[in-house]
Amino acid sequence: MKFLHKFPTTLLPSGGFFDPEKIQAQIDDLNTQVNEPDLWNNPDNARVVLQKKSALERQLAELNHLESEYKNLVELYEIAPDDPDVIADIEKLQHMAHKAKFITLFREPADNNGAFLFIQAGAGGTEAQDWAQMLSRMYARWAERHGFLTEVIEEHEGDTAGIKNITYRISGDRVYGWLKNEIGVHRLVRISPFNANGKRQTSFASVDVWPDVDDTIEIEINDKDLRIDTYRSSGAGGQHVNKTDSAVRITHIPTNTVVTCQNERSQIQNREMAMKMLRSKLYELEMQKRAEAENAALAAQKKIEWGSQIRNYVLYPYQLVKDVRTGVEKTDSDAVLDGDLDDFMLSLLQRG
Question: Region 96-109: what's the mean pLDDT?
């Protein structure tokens, strides 16, 4: 059938990047564990088993849906190979297949959750702050492309232009799974728009990501381990801003983890959001500790240090965005800065 070149070969029922039978076998194994009478003797392990089972069942449903759509389109194309609607559906299926490549790579329970994304300008004043704002737009556009909801939790504007830092809460299916490998230093090389001499400038900004944990992931926090401070909000926000001590800063003393929130209108709301961010950050810290114990190289990969960038964005003297961990390159830097990040993310997920 001549139309097959229009389909991703990985969707052919004879094989490909996913194996529904293998996933079903994993679900069956987990069902056996769920039915064990002593499962809840270890509540933490029980929750992990149920989370894995739920994630696999969702994967299987989505992959089976893809295969069903594929078979339907095969039949429709044989009947009406020149129908514009059929051709449009084929292109839609190709897009769905591309996204489905990620499904089997989300292995941790938190991969299915939303995420908090924090961007911090590096040293360099206005240059770095402008670069941080460019990154914030890039991730906002990426989220928009995927239909994710983006909310600004806190933002500090730059002294002249750009931003010093920003915290996003991005809600949607598997947001953390997509974003978790974006943690690190991002380096920009360009002709400075703030330098009258038109010199080439290198700027840095760091990105941190942690999962937006829900009630299915338990994090124990003792009140005695917290220091809670309130202060007046700054930045955009209308008449309410700077008139009351509504912003909240929470410090988890044992780990020296600090979270802040000033986006909501009341101190109570800001405190609730800050506590949610703290739970999420502490979860991520625990995952990093486990990774360090299991794989020292992986722990080093997550460590953020200036000069140890994970991705270079070169706008001059040529156009190139390159991930230094995988070697994936794109010459259309404008598209990347407009949110075209999926290829970078997929390559890292495939690396495992």
Answer: 73
Question: Measured in whole angstroms, how far is the alpha carbon of residue 167 from the centre of its chain?
Answer: 13
Mean pLDDT estimate for the chain: 82
Q: Are 153 and 170 in contact (CB under 8 A)?
A: no
Ranges of beta strands (E only) in 46-162 are: 114-121, 149-157
Q: What is the DSSP letter of 123?
A: S
Produce one character per residue of 286-319: b if its CB has 16 or more CB atoms within 10 Å, e if not. Answer: ebbeebeeeeeeeeebbeeeeeebbbbbbbeeee
Per-residue pLDDT of 103-146, as tens digits, reads: 777 877 788 889 999 999 998 889 999 999 999 999 999 999 98
pLDDT higher than threshold 80 for residue 186: yes
- Domains contained in the chain, CATH given: 2-104 (1.20.58), 110-352 (3.30.70.1660)
- Tokens encoding 53: 């089972």
Residues whose CB falls within 8 Å of the CB of residue 15, separated by 6 or more in sequence, listed in order: none
Secondary structure class of 166 (helix, strand, coil): strand
The 3 state secondary structure assigned to 7-61 is CCHHHCCCCCCCCHHHHHHHHHHHHHHHCCCCHHHCHHHHHHHHHHHHHHHHHHH
User: How many angstroms separate the Cα of 211 from the Cα of each of 111, 242, 243?
Assistant: 8, 30, 32
Three-state SS at 129: helix
In whole angstroms, what is the distance from residue 15 CA to residue 187 CA? 40
Contacts with 218 (C-beta within 8 Å, 6 or more apart), sequence order: 44, 47
Please give the pLDDT value at position 291.
62
DSSP 221: -
DSSP of 323-352, one letter per residue?
ETTT--EES-HHHHHTT--HHHHHHHHHH-
Q: How many Å apart are CA 324 and CA 327, to the nearest integer?
A: 5
Give the residue from 59, 1, 7 showing the smallest Cα distance to 30. 59
Strand spans (E) along 108-255: 114-121, 149-157, 163-171, 184-191, 200-212, 226-231, 247-252
Q: 20-34 and 43-79 are packed helices; what angle lies between their axes, rounded to 10 degrees?
A: 150
